[in-house]
Design brief:
0% strand, disordered N terminus, mainly alpha
Length: 270
């Protein structure tokens, strides 16, 4: 009872007083650990090549530790997965398209830093849930389109890149926008994965200093938590590489879209 009361007091503090440090110091619950490990596992799976499920890992981590705090916890884990993806799929990367998309995405990250810095926890949580739902709608709409033609004008890359940058900074949710851009380029599977691997490795490294020095969502405490979650990432990478070869993508993507939408709704009512 005392532990519950103490945790409740921590929740009442303003987010500027380092909520991450306090909440992790109070030792996460078993439920939080299960959700976080599941998130780390899904992260490994998506870095292994099963794109479109990043919204699920973000949802699980947000349910475990809160919307804002989860963004800082996830970034070092993303970089861990990126290192594997870059090594494994590097030969398939299409640098022409990385250079076309990357400047817009980095600009979007800077916008996201400004937008997200002073948001309170409640607004941040609602914003994250809405971004998740928007991502689901975008991906669902893409799946249902009869015509697969997508504009390849620079303005299309610019809009998708800026939106990807903003959403990756605020909620690590660039996947939907980046995926739509790469799908428009008609990449084969391995080129899609290899190009995305390098893009997100660069972007996640670019984001890290802002999480450490501006938002202060990456701390020694969150890094210690990340170390405990790395086995989940490695397990996800191991499973993901095999799933890429055998899973029926149509069924899988529909299942993930439904689960992700449900997760976003749970965040709203958490």
């Amino acid at each position: 009872m005392i532990k519950i009361l103490f945790f409740g007091i921590l929740l009442s503090f303003d987010h500027e007083t380092s909520y991450v440090t306090l909440s992790i110091a109070s030792e996460p619950s078993l439920t939080a650990w299960v959700l976080a490990f599941a998130s780390a596992f899904v992260l490994g799976v998506t870095k292994a090549g099963l794109k479109g499920i990043d919204v699920l890992l973000v949802t699980l981590m947000a349910l475990a530790f809160g919307a804002r705090e989860s963004t800082g916890i996830i970034v070092p884990l993303l970089i861990t997965g990126d290192i594997f993806a870059v090594i494994y799929y590097s030969r398939h990367a299409q640098w022409k398209y990385i250079f076309k998309f990357l400047p817009w995405m980095l600009a979007g990250v800077l916008v996201g830093v400004l937008i997200g810095k002073d948001l309170d926890e409640h607004t941040f949580k609602i914003g994250m849930a809405l971004i998740i739902l928007l991502s689901v709608v975008i991906m669902f709409g893409w799946e249902k389109r009869k015509s697969q033609s997508v504009p390849t004008h620079w303005a299309f890359a610019g809009f998708m890149g800026i939106m990807a940058g903003i959403t990756t900074m605020i909620g690590n949710l660039a996947g939907a926008f980046a995926n739509i851009f790469f799908l428009a380029m008609r990449f084969p599977k391995n080129e899609f994965i290899g190009t995305a691997a390098w893009l997100f490795f660069i972007v996640n490294l670019f984001k890290l200093p802002f999480h450490i020095f501006v938002w202060e969502t990456v701390t020694p405490q969150t890094l210690l938590l990340d170390l405990k979650l790395i086995p989940g990432v490695l397990l996800g990478l191991f499973v993901g590489v095999r799933l890429v070869k055998i899973i029926k993508e149509g069924f899988y993507r529909k299942m993930i879209l439904v689960l992700t939408a449900l997760g976003a709704i749970l965040i709203l009512f958490r």
